[in-house]
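Weekly structure sync, notes
Attendees: PL, DS, HV (note-taker this week)

Item 1: FAD-dependent oxidoreductase
DS walked through the input record. Source organism listed as Rhizobium sullae. Sequence as pasted into the shared doc:
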Amino acid sequence: MTVQENWQSPIAPGVSWYQATVGERPTYPELDGSKTCDVAIVGGGYTGLQAAYNLANAGVSVMLIDACRFGDGASGRNGGQLGTGQRSWPEELEEKIGYERSKALFDLAEASKKHLLDFASEHQIDIEFMPGQMNVSHKERYKRYYYENAEIAALRYDYPHLRFMDREETQERLGSKRYYCGVRDTGTGHIHPLKLLIGLARVAANAGAQIFEMTKATAIRQGSGKVTIETPKGTITAGRALIACNGYIGNLEPVTASHVMPIRSFIGATVPLDKYPAVLPGGEAVADSRFVVRYFRKSKDGRLLFGGREAYTADNPREISEHIRRQIAEIYPDLKDIKITHAWGGSVGITMPRQPFVREVMPGVTSIGGYSGHGVMLSNYCGKLYAETVLGKSADLELFKALDIPAFPGGAAMRAPLLFLALSWFALRDKF
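Item 1 (cont.): predicted structure, written out as tokens:
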């Protein structure tokens, strides 16, 4: 393996603070020539690499390709927050799908969290885990929902780690007067996502998975009981395949593309906040109640990692730092002139109901994605569950397959403009 310095992702803007702190970042070969295997995987993020590791570890012949370098997509550039449960609060899911299914999905998410932390510990991957997360409200009228959320989690979902925070406590724990209340979650935390991704690729390769970077899938076909994946330098023929491209599906597979929409999200890293000890003194991560959510946390060396500006197109803003700094200043006015050392972005794969998309899109071909900003835990576990499905060890992936995930309206030509209008409306509502 060789190492490339100062690598700029070709699919996402900016060089992340994560990349700047991982030291030597290994590279893997390109696919060169046609090959056969039992299972082929397209996408080298958490989902694909977890599936590759678990399959290879069980003796299955598996090949994985990624169009760029591992970590160039969301798995290596995200906000690093684990969260709890699904993207929606359990009581919201319960209204739609009933208590039994909502509880099953909540328990699955808790298993996802445990799996991630156990996996990193077992394979000695230093993911820089830091405990604690707070969900906070930017509107006073949401107070009842936050209070009830903590009660429901304990009484109905066997999760005693949430506690309601009133306005005074919320402001003290954040070091900001911007929010009215919140819940503090001591049963979760946040991580260095690229360190997890790099470790996961190493573990998958060591288990015997054949993994290839800089190898773009140009077409995928099914016929005569086989799946064929075309690349610029050869084809992969397999018994079955997993599409794990999430927000980077492009035009590879139309069913996935109609159900998973990429949106841009951006993050900035400040200099260490040694002069501002009141900012997040407990070191928890934070996500707020905006539909266009703002999410931020402290790194282990005391930097503020702040994300929140979303763009509902594939375009990149000219200057990420200035947009992020303005949002930081709304919450922390004393940081209005803080130096931002790194600013970067990437595509988040979302679905209409903000729940994962898991479907067999053609015989023998499963697509998994659309984690909607809640993918650090779920994507890792979905990769594991896919492998267990192939191995006949678990049917838990069916919980996601059973979710009703409609396609975005308007078809290929109209879905992006319609989504832009809809989400811009929600962003406007966040201000009132």
